[in-house]
């Protein structure tokens, strides 16, 4: 079994892993983690875009660093190092979340949903939402919404964006503004089902009240829409590790909060949860388990930092 230590070693030594369906999420460090040709050394971007605050770390840039990206700066890497002193499975957490995001998006597309809203999707280099769902439905429409300048600059530099894929500047904390955005409304037909993706976003976007914020978005979605959501949790975690997260993220551009399983379940009130994997009953699960062919193998330490679920709006 590959461990979080193996994952970190892959970054240090410049080795990728072959992706197989039955591998744990933490193994999805793939060849593209080392997108600079296999050397393994990550360097920061030459010139940050306007609006980037280099005095503090950013959750989006931290996430990019955990995933092996290059759109981050020393302030972000220093912050990540502080967490990894007590949470060595940090990269595993990010990959577990990313794996859930991708599997849930594909699952929703396989149910015939042809339009998606990805809130705070981040800085990933491969396996972005439009890439995943277009393998199922080539004409699916995908809107990425984010307000981090690095995310917007990176997303707009992607060469595989289609006419059905938009990157829209928006702040998830203000749902009325988001839902009335002309560009979003020009792409997404809210009278038809939508795949609404909020993976590890409410952790940083709510100011401690994820339910009211989420309820406003869900109220705008048509019957037959799906919510895919994950949220960081401190359930059964060492207090020192939790404190490391809170200390670092409290100093970021967006501070975060953790939720218990019961609190995450409240996010799905009024929705119909689906079974997370074959043989399971509809419920929340850890991020690595959702959609896994072998949930026991996918149940990693990093995965257990995130509760997740997918639910249908009746």
Q: In CATH's first tier, which class applies? A: Alpha Beta
Weakly predicted, low-confidence segments: 1-43
Q: And the CATH topology?
A: Rossmann fold
So, the CATH homologous superfamily? Vaccinia Virus protein VP39
Major pleated sheet? 8 strands, mixed
Separate helix tally: 13
Compute the gyration radius: what is it? 18 Å
Mean pLDDT: 82
DSSP E strands, number:
8
> Which percent range describes the beta-strand content?
5-15%
| Molecular shape | globular
User: Which architecture name does CATH use?
Assistant: 3-Layer(aba) Sandwich
Order of helices and strands: HHHHEHEHEHHEHHEHHEEHE
Number of domains: 1
Quick synopsis:
The protein is of the alpha/beta class and 314 residues long. Helix content is 35%, strand content 12%.
